[in-house]
Amino acid sequence: MLKVVLGIVTSIGGFVEVGSISTSAQAGASFRFRLVWALALATLCLMFLIEMSGRLAAVSKHTLADAVRERFGFNFHVVPLAGEAVLDGLVLTAEMGGVAIALHLLTGIPARWLVVPVALAVWLLLWFGTFGMIENGMGLLGLVTLCFVVAAMKLGLPWREAAGGLVPSVPPDHHASYGFMAVSILGATISPYMLNFYSSGAVEEKWKESDLMTNRITAGIGMGFGSLVSFGVLAAAALTLQPAGIQVDRYEQAALMLPPVFGRWGVPLFAAALAVGCFGAALEIALNLAFAMAQAFGWNWDKNQRPAEDARFSLVYTLAVLVAVVPILAGVDPLRLTLLSMAVTVIVLPIVVLPFLVLMNDEHYVGTHRNGWLGNAVVAFIVVMGFVLALVAVPLEIMGS
Amino acid sequence: MDLVRDLLDKQVRDRRGKRMGKVDGIVLELRKDGPPRVAFVEIGPVTLARRLGPAFGRLMQAIDVGFGVSDGAPLRIPLSKVRDAGIEAAVDLEAEETRAWDWERWLRRHVINRIPGAGSRL
Fold first, then answer.
1. A2-400, what's its fold?
2. B84-111 burial string, b = 16+ CB within 10 Å, else e?
3. Is pLDDT at A388 greater than 90 in this prediction?
4. Which pLDDT value is given to residue A143?
């Protein structure tokens, strides 16, 4: 029971990060509830994928990266590995930028300088902390993000309009940016790093087939709750920013969605939620990169060892944090970087997910716990749809802006 | 046994259960009187890089030698010493003491141990 609760709390923390907050805020501010379908589809896909990666770990005792290298060989594995490394780097930068912006909202100090203490804090926790401490601590703090759901409720959520958003309706103008937002939402929600991270946690905790039920519940309810927060952001933006004609081009504008409900606590609350969400995600992404590399090359990886015991593992996250600071210090806008990384995510997603689907149908790995046709179909459909949408919408958006 | 499916790219653990490396390569022995047989498995970055192409192999070799990490030769383990542990392969060696951990030792000495707190956990 405790395991389930912790799992769910962790998923809320893991779900809410710079990408989901910024894309949901933009979607709500620009298109009210017209993109709820994208969030719903992406959540459904993520639930299936997370359940699968837990099942892979529980039955085959392999993490996703271990299984891909073993099943497809190293020469294939370098492709998704390189894709994930680039993506993790981009997203890590965006997350640390997100924390820096949140601190900027509170202090007024320029975000590009704040990123240095942020990176240092991320690294110190990885260097000195343990896996359980990081996961559970960030998960609990992540509950602050529920403020968006409270805000949406207090603002009088128009249920009928929100439910209507489950059916795509392209607005008469702004086709390209509507498509681009849909891609961004898919990319923000279905983060490839979560798959390997989740399976690594499951292998480390030595999940067995008897844990499959826990896994299913955690994946379903946890991702459901996480997506509820994203929906809260979208709704709060739709109900406050959209009527005021505010488009979210900067985080300062997104922060304006909470003051109508929480008064002068609104902006600090937004900043706290953004900071906690992004900080937790930054820790997970840096760790995941180290997991992915260690599993690809067979190094020892154990988050509870001292850094000196796993030198190669510790070096990967250390370098990742160092490199990720550079773009923000150089003055790249974190919000633009976030949107870029969401689009890149959707393009990289098929090369990560398609081999995963093969594994989930291979008796060698999952025995009798193979995927049903529904799981395969849902995931393949959403990933391919996202990919096609991205190929169409990304160039249009770049030309348009 | 299907070599590529069941042996190549498998995780190898050492005597203490530490992850030692992956089966990066397989060395076959040609025999006059009979089919070739697997003589060794190899663990090492140069062996692995060579699978991507000879140029990658040379590059990795140059990096290994250039940094003074090793002479680029992989760890070779006779197949008879490799135990099939189901999901993974196990060998009766100490990872720390083998070539498979050349980089681990080098990075520990030259990088990680120079950062404060490398030996501690909260």
1. Amino acid/polyamine transporter I (1.20.1740)
2. eeeebbbbebebeebbbbbbbbbbbeeb
3. no
4. 84
In the chain, the amino acid numbered A361 is N
Q: How far apart are CA B108 and CA B77, in angstroms?
A: 24
Separation between Cα atoms, residue A315 and residue A174, nearest integer Å: 45
Cβ neighbours for B33, distance < 8 A, ≥ 6 positions apart: none
Give the per-residue pLDDT at A136: 77
Q: Measure the N-to-C terminal CA separation of chain A; round to a whole number of Å.
A: 49
Element containing residue A7 per DSSP (H, E)? helix A2-15
Q: Which residues of chain B are at the A interface, by a Cβ-Cβ cutoff of 8 Å?
A: 4, 8-12, 18-22, 24, 43, 45, 48, 51-52, 87, 95, 103-105, 107-108, 111-113, 115, 117-122
Can you give the length of chain B in residues? 122
* Domains and their CATH numbers in chain B: 3-114 (2.30.30.240)
| pTM for the whole structure | 0.93
Tens of pLDDT, residue by residue over A80-108, are 999 999 999 999 999 999 999 999 999 99
Tell me, what's the ipTM? 0.93
**Please, are residues B97 and B16 in contact by the beta-carbon 8 Å criterion?**
no
> Which chain A residue shows the shortest CA-CA distance from B121?
A128
- Which tokens in the block code for residue A311? 């030198």
Helices (H), chain B: 3-6, 45-52, 54-66, 102-110
Identify residue B122 by its one-letter amino acid code. L
C-alpha closest to that of A269 among A111, A155, A144: A144
Size of interface A-B (CB pairs under 8 A): 86
pLDDT, residue A61, reads 94
* Cα(A298)–Cα(A364) distance, integer angstroms: 20
